[in-house]
Amino acid sequence: MNSKQHDRNGLRPDHTRAVRRSVATCGLALMGLLSVAALAAGDAAAGKRVYDTRCLGCHGGDGTAPTLGPSLVGIIGRKAGTEQTGVHSRAMVDSDITWNASSLRKFLAAPTKQVPGTIMPTGVPSAQEIDDLVAYLETLR
User: Fold this and answer.
1) Domain 42-137 has CATH 1.10.760.10
2) How many Å apart are CA 43 and CA 35, to the nearest integer?
3) Contact assessment for residue 59 and residue 70, using Cβ atoms and an 8 Å cutoff
4) Spans of all domains in the chain
5) Hey, which residues does 79 pair with through a beta bridge?
6) pLDDT, tens only, 40-96
7) Can you give the pTM of this predicted structure?
8) Which SS3 state, helix, strand or coil, does residue 53 take?
């Protein structure tokens, strides 16, 4: 078959090779993206350990005991500064943040940068710990 002839799919041989290369490249790229997504998802069990070490002292456990900070039970989907437990800064109440995985990651990385005036004094320094913590917070309903 010369370069002007077409295969059974109506493609010239040089086009068939290009299509196959493109499909293979897209497949490899998709596998890479899925691997990154799996890493970004975090480990809820490791996140509980982060929570117990870094968050429990101010935010409490199951949301029933009085705490300095608001309970984090059910935080996903909640507007910042609206939880009935704990103390909220005016900055947090006025922040117009609705908590989701993305907004939590940004806030936990740099609380005073994301919400100037927040009373939360420190963030979580490790991106992996943040991903794990967010995975754990997503389990608290």
Assistant:
1) yes
2) 14
3) yes
4) 1-41, 42-137
5) 98
6) 589 999 999 999 999 999 999 887 777 899 999 999 999 999 999 999 999 999 999
7) 0.71
8) helix
